[in-house]
């Protein structure tokens, strides 16, 4: 039995509320169980110097956790004092979102996706990627409505979910009690039924190819459900 009482292939309840901030070109609040992340997308008509005059757009991301997102207060991270974990996660978010973007169709502009964890209960990077895509899509819709972008550069949703081996069983969408005790922990990022990135590690026990295939099957199920929620949120 999972601590939450869920079935092994059952996701936490997912909700995505859009338009939650008045200034950002795209925004949403994604809730995956008790993990809540505010995602905003900002359009910048400038690109990084290495892309100037290339005709290519760029998508990047920043990630952070509020001091009381966890059960004990964390010190607030300064821009130049980010932990290695924070830097690794925001690079993952940026890579993941860019994989689903036609950068030629986007045009020579940058969209910055900010993911701020309000409350953490496992799977914050996955929720950030899933919600980040929604915020990105909403920002692109504004560009298309204004005529600044002609062809939608976002073909398929990008979503992510965690899977792992807990108490000897393959389980989908780990919350914190499971994540902290899982023998194997993995994060799966996909778009259009294809893998973008897989992060898997043996935390307390090794795993077999058969077990990994089972985790991938669970991930595909979970991401299909997240994709439905994303598409419903962006209309």
TrEMBL record:
<keyword id="KW-0819">tRNA processing</keyword>
<keyword id="KW-0548">Nucleotidyltransferase</keyword>
<comment type="similarity">
    <text>Belongs to the RNase PH family.</text>
</comment>
<dbReference type="GO" id="GO:0009022">
    <property type="term" value="F:tRNA nucleotidyltransferase activity"/>
</dbReference>
<comment type="function">
    <text>Phosphorolytic 3'-5' exoribonuclease that plays an important role in tRNA 3'-end maturation. Removes nucleotide residues following the 3'-CCA terminus of tRNAs; can also add nucleotides to the ends of RNA molecules by using nucleoside diphosphates as substrates, but this may not be physiologically important. Probably plays a role in initiation of 16S rRNA degradation (leading to ribosome degradation) during starvation.</text>
</comment>
<dbReference type="InterPro" id="IPR027408">
    <property type="entry name" value="PNPase/RNase_PH_dom_sf"/>
</dbReference>
<feature type="binding site">
    <location>
        <position position="85"/>
    </location>
    <ligand>
        <name>phosphate</name>
    </ligand>
</feature>
<comment type="subunit">
    <text>Homohexameric ring arranged as a trimer of dimers.</text>
</comment>
<dbReference type="GO" id="GO:0008033">
    <property type="term" value="P:tRNA processing"/>
</dbReference>
<dbReference type="GO" id="GO:0000175">
    <property type="term" value="F:3'-5'-RNA exonuclease activity"/>
</dbReference>
<keyword id="KW-0808">Transferase</keyword>
<dbReference type="InterPro" id="IPR020568">
    <property type="entry name" value="Ribosomal_Su5_D2-typ_SF"/>
</dbReference>
<feature type="binding site">
    <location>
        <begin position="123"/>
        <end position="125"/>
    </location>
    <ligand>
        <name>phosphate</name>
    </ligand>
</feature>
<dbReference type="InterPro" id="IPR015847">
    <property type="entry name" value="ExoRNase_PH_dom2"/>
</dbReference>
<dbReference type="InterPro" id="IPR036345">
    <property type="entry name" value="ExoRNase_PH_dom2_sf"/>
</dbReference>
<dbReference type="InterPro" id="IPR002381">
    <property type="entry name" value="RNase_PH_bac-type"/>
</dbReference>
<dbReference type="InterPro" id="IPR018336">
    <property type="entry name" value="RNase_PH_CS"/>
</dbReference>
<protein>
    <recommendedName>
        <fullName>Ribonuclease PH</fullName>
        <ecNumber>2.7.7.56</ecNumber>
    </recommendedName>
</protein>
<dbReference type="GO" id="GO:0016075">
    <property type="term" value="P:rRNA catabolic process"/>
</dbReference>
<feature type="domain" description="Exoribonuclease phosphorolytic">
    <location>
        <begin position="156"/>
        <end position="222"/>
    </location>
</feature>
<feature type="domain" description="Exoribonuclease phosphorolytic">
    <location>
        <begin position="10"/>
        <end position="139"/>
    </location>
</feature>
<keyword id="KW-0820">tRNA-binding</keyword>
<dbReference type="Pfam" id="PF01138">
    <property type="entry name" value="RNase_PH"/>
</dbReference>
<dbReference type="Pfam" id="PF03725">
    <property type="entry name" value="RNase_PH_C"/>
</dbReference>
<dbReference type="GO" id="GO:0000049">
    <property type="term" value="F:tRNA binding"/>
</dbReference>
<dbReference type="InterPro" id="IPR001247">
    <property type="entry name" value="ExoRNase_PH_dom1"/>
</dbReference>
<keyword id="KW-0694">RNA-binding</keyword>
<dbReference type="GO" id="GO:0031125">
    <property type="term" value="P:rRNA 3'-end processing"/>
</dbReference>
<keyword id="KW-0698">rRNA processing</keyword>
<dbReference type="InterPro" id="IPR050080">
    <property type="entry name" value="RNase_PH"/>
</dbReference>
């Amino acid at each position: 039995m999972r601590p939450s009482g869920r079935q092994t292939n059952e996701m936490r309840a997912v909700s995505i509320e859009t338009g939650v901030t008045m200034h950002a070109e795209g925004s949403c609040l994604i809730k995956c169980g008790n993990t809540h992340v505010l995602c905003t997308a900002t359009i910048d008509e400038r690109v990084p110097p290495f892309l100037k005059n290339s005709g290519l757009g760029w998508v990047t991301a920043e990630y952070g956790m509020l001091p009381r997102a966890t059960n004990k207060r964390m010190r607030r991270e300064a821009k130049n004092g980010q932990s290695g974990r924070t830097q690794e996660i925001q690079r993952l978010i940026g890579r993941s979102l860019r994989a689903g973007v036609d950068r030629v169709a986007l045009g020579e502009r940058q969209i910055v996706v900010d993911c701020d964890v309000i409350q953490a209960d496992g799977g914050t990077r996955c929720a950030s990627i899933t919600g980040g895509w929604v915020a990105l899509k909403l920002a692109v819709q504004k560009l298309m409505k204004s005529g600044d972008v002609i062809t939608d550069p976002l073909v398929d949703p990008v979503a992510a979910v965690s899977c792992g081996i807990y108490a000897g069983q393959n389980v989908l969408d780990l919350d914190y009690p499971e994540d902290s005790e899982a023998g194997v922990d993995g994060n799966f990022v996909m778009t259009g039924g294809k893998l973008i990135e897989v992060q898997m590690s043996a935390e307390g026990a090794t795993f077999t190819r058969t077990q990994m295939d089972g985790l991938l099957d669970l991930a595909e199920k979970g991401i299909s459900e997240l994709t439905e929620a994303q598409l419903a949120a962006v209309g």
